[in-house]
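Sequence in, structure out.
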Amino acid sequence: MTQQQDLLELNAGDSVVDLGCGTGSLMAGLLESRELPTGICLSQVDFVPDALRRIRDRISARRARSNVCASYVSADLELMARNPWIPFADQSQDAALASLLISYVRRPEMLIREVFRVLRPGGRFVLSALRPDADTSRIFVQGAEELRRGRALEVFGQAESASLEDSFRSFLNDAARLLELEERGVFHFWPEDEIAKLLKQGGFRRIRVQQGFGTPAQALIAVGKKP
């Protein structure tokens, strides 16, 4: 997340939207940053209202001591309705993040066009996706080691950190099923040229793609700018 946060190139007063925010990793990263510009406003978007509540409860005390403002938006990012849209006005955002999201929506090209719509000229869009040959067990091992060293309490709080080992087992089961579904064509993991092509077709320019998520890298991170 630090790598993705840096690519957002945040400036003082920026409005940022985190699409498919999950457990709120971007917000947690912003709150931990020692060089965060002032006046950042982050909109966290997820389909699961309970996930948004958990983020709000987990970081409320820390956010109160920071200069980051936050909003929580429940939205279906599948964009399958007759008039699909992201619930933000045209040219209202300075940056957007879609971390490990596009593999799990049926119309990623529509999502990218919507991001383009809501960004202001010069806005930055950062997206990431697992590589087709990703080994999620490596992400698991490295993440588990970090959490066991005491990071779990800081990130998840007392209640969830107490059930850490149960969470690890659940993650491994989900990861195995994820790769099975990818092999069956339910999900699509993206190679570098396809990610760059998606951004270009969506109107973005100055596109860069780099590796990330573990050593060796298990995902690709791309950034594009709206002209």
